[in-house]
């Protein structure tokens, strides 16, 4: 196997070290360092390139001499660039650099940098360093792109300090880091959650300690994106305005992040205005831009808005990604139009990569919401047949489907199956719908037993679950007690239960038609689903009101006196 260039060392799988040098045009030795001789055309078919056998370029340029085409630097760089976009392709890219040299095409610094990009994605710092040394042997000087790629390898490896030292190394060699160099470090620190370090680097960049001749938005985009991921919306917006004030022109990525920010803050109008500004700046939105709009419209349950965004995307000839299709499926499923949602699934199946775990999960949730448990399970089995890994959310969705039709036995079977797979361990959302369903169905003892099962799975019930079971159990005991003593609760002249005035209490329970319970302050105020953390709460049972003293977690039929 021929590897990169003069002086490159490679430890082979056998443990041997291969040192490959190439001869000059007037040399009879193949082990001298000079300009390489052109390689003779291979006798077999041209090697397969990174683009696949169906691509014309792969057939004609996989080995230029084999196809009878003229070997040129641009052709090989296109191949190296293709490998740089693929994962775990460092060795393959370096092989192509070797073929390039054997064909008599002299590499440039960019040739080595392209191979380094492949290794950088794998975090292979030593290989990147080795290539830089090989450049020096050929009299080629590393550029800002070379060092930036090396810094990226360090951050991929998780060594941010090492990446910082690369910037110092650049300056020592008379090369100023540029915007992209700083973006590598800003992304690494902010992704780690250390925004102080990230903003310090951005300030250093703005203070002029870098090459600012070609400003780009990537340092700001990285910081905005990670602020957004941390739900620090004000900081993300502040960085956007800071970028504008610095005279840095937003690109498609930064506009898209800003649109995502506005949509997460429910400012759809502002996001649409940003989209218009983006297009007015001669920037074409991409599938990620539209995916943000589609996700928001699907979340809001607006099929009309989803379809309008889709039509706009098609008009701009933007190729949708799987996330775009997932939102369309979600919108129609949420509207109960499962046949239309299924038709969108068919469109995803026609894509090269096909549906992902989120696609199946979205369609499953649509069927679960309408209680079609058999169809929900069928979609789940289709996903597993494609060897797409299941997760806890998929199983929780099946549980939801069974609870809707009150098939608690089947729902509990899912809990048992989940415990057998480390990737699908049950969580709070696995147990909660079953417990609430059992309470609503009057199976209080079974619901209480399930609380113990939760703890056996190292899942601690939250306050809502404990309150729901305790409330139902107390009401059940009170009803039984009143039946035995033939005691009737106070009633109005019409024979219906009369809710007393909430004197002496802090909160009042407000039962909902769907069986859930909300609470409002006795003095007036908005309803909340969270059980009160203190005070006295007036609760309702079939036998009348009773009172929950939150701090002591006791209940009483005696109404507290007013304070």
How would you portray this structure in words?
The structure is a single chain. Helix 8 runs antiparallel to helix 9, helix 8 (179-192) packs parallel to helix 10 (218-229) and helix 20 (392-404) packs parallel to helix 22. The chain is elongated. Strand 3 and strand 4 (517-521) form a beta hairpin. The longest helix has 23 residues, at 463-485. By secondary structure, it is mainly alpha-helical. The protein is built from 24 helices and seven strands. Mean pLDDT is 82; it is low at 1-70 and 486-501. The protein has helices at 56-61, 73-84, 90-102, 109-120, 125-137, 144-157, 160-172, 179-192, 195-206, 218-229, 233-245, 252-264, 268-280, 287-299, 303-315, 322-334, 338-349, 357-369, 373-385, 392-404, 408-418, 428-440, 444-456, 463-485; strands spanning 8-11, 17-20, 507-511, 517-521, 536-541, 544-549, 554-556. It has a five-stranded mixed beta sheet with strand order 4-3-5-6-7, covered by helices on one side.
Shape: elongated
Gap between N and C termini: 89 Å
What is the averaged pLDDT score? 82
> Ranges with pLDDT <50 over ≥5 residues?
1-70, 486-501
Give a count of the beta strands, DSSP E runs of length 2 or more: 7
Cα gyration radius (Å)? 33 Å
Q: What's the main sheet like?
A: 5 strands, mixed
Overall structural class, as computed from helix and strand content, comes to mainly alpha
The tally of helices reads 24
Strand content is: 5-15%
Helix percent band: 55-70%
Going across the biggest sheet, name each strand in turn: 4-3-5-6-7
Features:
mainly alpha, 563 residues, two-stranded antiparallel sheet, single chain
